[in-house]
User: What shape does this take?
Amino acid sequence: MKDSEGLLLVISGPAGAGKGTVVKMLTQDENIRLSISATTRAPRGTEQDGVEYHFMTKEGFEQLIGENGFIEYAKYVDNYYGTPRRPVEQWMSQGKDVILEIEVQGCEKVKSAIPGCISIFIMPPSLEELESRLRGRGTETEENIIKRMTRAKEEIPLSEGYDYVVTNDTVERCANEIKEIIKAEKVARA
Ligand code: 5GP
Assistant: This one.
């Protein structure tokens, strides 16, 4: 990463940890951009193509893999998820800070490809709270909730490999802690 470039922040955490809401709060700052991932999973609830995700077919996704169109991609609970390369590189070169909200395998790949990135793991206050948030969405099947909870139990120990772990007890406190991390990283790099 060059000095004039923005920061690349990788944010992970179990599904239901509240990453999406925290990230929404952070991206109210116009210098912080959120990368819109591509996925082969079906839209959930009110999700729209190009807003929450670029929804793609498996064939389309695999074609883009072949064209080196992703910074990283991973399989998570039966579907592909990936970070399109072009917008992220453009924003960073314009000095914007870019957030990738991705799962743990993707984070590992970004760390190897872009060593200057900052990794943050958002931890739910407890597994009970996580399950109740997943159920509260009302958009997941029972099978999916079980798969996501199983994945969460695998992911939480991997938080040790992240630069920062932030507990999402309240969205506001969690977002403020991340803003402080961004400020501190900028001072350290200047
Ligand atoms: P969901 O289906 O709940 O939207 O996302 C499932 C998981 O995939 C979440 O942990 C989310 O952070 C992760 N994810 C979303 N986009 C990407 C991506 O581009 N790459 C990777 N590796 N994971 C992603």
Remarks:
- The chain has a mean pLDDT of 94.
